[in-house]
Design goal:
This protein is mainly beta. Helix content is about 0%, strand content about 30%. The chain has no helices and nine strands. Strand 8 and strand 9 form a beta hairpin. The N and C termini lie far apart (about 45 Å).
Length: about 100
């Protein structure tokens, strides 16, 4: 899996779609719903099901990052599966606070 900046991926088990913002420092496996993501143009296999342990959902417009590897992805289409990296769950990052305009 070559997670280059700007590359587009989608979940193999739900409607979630993602864009890589910042690549990982080394080789990793990005997963959604308990299964590795697939290239945006690839067809979903009909035999895979969403894992109950990875069914927290992914929200459109949110960035998901892993501080250990540096990987950051943007969710471009929401889905029922939650993101994980090599089996470790990764969560949405909080928006940065803007300075006051007083």
């Amino acid at each position: 899996m070559d997670l280059k900046p700007g590359s587009r991926w989608k979940s193999a088990v739900c409607e979630g779609e993602f864009v890589v913002v910042r690549p990982a420092k080394g080789p990793v496996s990005l997963e959604c719903g308990g299964h590795p993501v697939i290239a945006h143009a690839a067809e979903r296999a009909g035999d895979l099901v969403l894992s109950d342990a990875h069914a927290g959902g992914s929200a459109a417009g949110k960035r998901y990052a892993d501080p250990e590897t540096g990987l950051e992805v943007l969710c471009s289409k929401a889905g029922k599966g939650s993101l994980s990296l090599d089996g470790r769950p990764i969560g949405a990052t909080e928006a940065k606070k803007l300075p006051s305009s007083d």
